[in-house]
Fold Aldo-keto reductase family 1 member D1.
Amino acid sequence: MQRSCDTSFLQTAKGDAYQAVKVAIETGYRHIDGALMYMNEHEVGQAIRSKIADGTVTREEIFYCGKLWNTFHPPHMVRPALERTLEMMQLDYVDLYIVEMPIAFKPGDVFFPKDENGKFIYHETDLCATWEALEACKDAGLVKSLGVSNFNKRQLELILNKPGLKHKPVSNQVECHPYFTQPELLSFCRQNASVTLTCPPLLEDEVLVSIAQKHNKTPAQVALRFNIQRGVVVIPKSFTSARIKENFQVGIFDFCLSEDQMEKIEGLNKNMRHVLLPM
């Protein structure tokens, strides 16, 4: 199992992403989750290359996930967007490239285009046409695998049922935690072999706190372990060296939640998102 590090920080000081990814790789993380619109792929790529250069890892041992942003959905813009990521990171390929959202904004380099009233400017594009452009990128060797993010069942079916589908999505990266367990989507993804899933004061919840005390763990580690035992890939994120190491070393792989504890955590579901997507 690859252990993952999320790089989704839009407002960070220069060098923070570079240092965080270096610490993560040195600690043992191998799955790095990033995106062009996070505005730090140049630092992430620099950190990856530095750890390859000093012999800590090989390129094959690193699994990098990049994302196609909403303003690059038109088919003719898909490959240039991916090539922009590769140029920023100075890599020959990414391991996974995913459609960040199933919606499109007005094409261009303004990531959040809005009209004079402050409303998002959307763009009508065909998800299947966008997917075909991604398939061409995979065939060209620019990406190893393709996936999606924030897709619901209907949107997944659009891709899975596309005539002439060459490459199925291998992942659907979504919000998923004890307050938002997404059982229906998880069940659908499990039924479709190549599609798998990727926080209020959740970590202060008395159920998580109580279970954490019994295992001598933190509530965060219990929440991560809960999803791991459900077969969900989790991508923790932090810029704090201690937390990066805590999630990996002290971690979530040296204990198991009982069936009763799993049921108690499942009972916390409130269908409550932490990450709001107003668009």
Remarks:
- The chain has a mean pLDDT of 89.
- The CA atoms of residues 28 and 248 lie 7 Å apart.
- The longest strand covers residues 143-149.
- The beta strands are 4-6, 31-33, 63-68, 94-99, 143-149, 172-173.
